[in-house]
TrEMBL record:
It comes from Brevibacterium casei CIP 102111. Keywords: DNA-binding, Transcription, Transcription regulation. SUPFAM superfamilies: GntR ligand-binding domain-like (SSF48008), Winged helix' DNA-binding domain (SSF46785). This is DNA-binding transcriptional regulator, FadR family. InterPro entries: GntR_C (IPR011711), TF_FadR/GntR_C (IPR008920), Tscrpt_reg_HTH_GntR (IPR000524), WH-like_DNA-bd_sf (IPR036388), WH_DNA-bd_sf (IPR036390).
Length: 229
């Protein structure tokens, strides 16, 4: 990350995260960045702010902390990643496990959307629109992780509509696997996540509109677009 990019960050925590991330990216996994105290001084932030930055950096799998003599901050081993549309999911499990779950999940979603068209009640549709509003709020806040959580909540609610108990159970269990092992959502290269989640919001609005209109063909068409993105 360049100094120009760091200047655009909006808070002391962001600046500390950017500086330490930049330092870690230049090192091999396991190499020492320095002591906690020295890096805090270099970042020019308070102890509490630096601790919050370290929490985020550890959560994202960028650094590890080692206590005691010879301890400090170290570049972490690469975090497993899984591709999700125009973003990457940082994982705490082998990426193959999550990617397999995502592939099976994707194959089930058109069936669930079709059942939502056939069996969705007025309350079901109201609940779907409520979750769309949560997604919209995340887009307005430019919060990709919050958007992902709201998006998955929408899909879980669609799954709850189906009268097929086996289909619903399999899908919700797959979502639990993906959710449990996802640490963060990250951009792919220089692609802005903000634009991606705004586009995905509109697609999901269209899907809910088609479900509400009980338009099977339109819903199926949109789910094909959804699977491709």
């Amino acid at each position: 990350m360049t100094s120009e990019t760091r200047a655009l960050t909006t808070s002391p925590v962001d600046r500390a995260v950017a500086l330490v991330s930049d330092r870690a990216s230049r090192l091999e996994p396991g190499q020492r960045l320095g002591t906690k105290g020295a890096l805090q001084v270099e970042c020019g932030v308070s102890k509490g702010t630096f601790n919050e930055a370290l929490r985020l950096l550890q959560h994202r799998g960028i650094i590890t902390l080692r206590p005691g003599p010879g301890g400090g901050l170290f570049a972490a081993e690469p975090t497993p990643m899984a591709r999700l549309g125009n973003s990457l999911l940082a994982l705490d499990a082998d990426s193959t496990t999550v990617e397999d779950a995502m592939r099976v999940r994707d194959s089930l979603e058109p069936l669930l959307a079709s059942d939502a068209v056939d069996h969705g009640s007025l309350k079901d549709v109201r609940d779907l629109w409520e979750r769309i509003e949560h997604m919209r709020a995340a887009v307005e806040a430019e919060d990709a992780h919050r958007f992902l959580e709201a998006n998955w909540a929408l899909h879980r609610r669609i799954a709850e509509i189906t009268p097929n108990q086996l289909l619903r159970s399999i899908y919700l269990n797959l979502m639990a696997i993906i959710d449990d092992h996802t640490l963060d959502v990250l951009p792919v290269a220089d692609t802005p996540l903000e634009s991606f989640i705004a586009e995905r919001l509109q697609l999901h609005i269209d899907i809910v509109e088609a479900i509400e209109a009980r338009d099977r063909d339109r819903t199926a068409e949109l789910m094909r677009v959804h699977a491709g993105g």
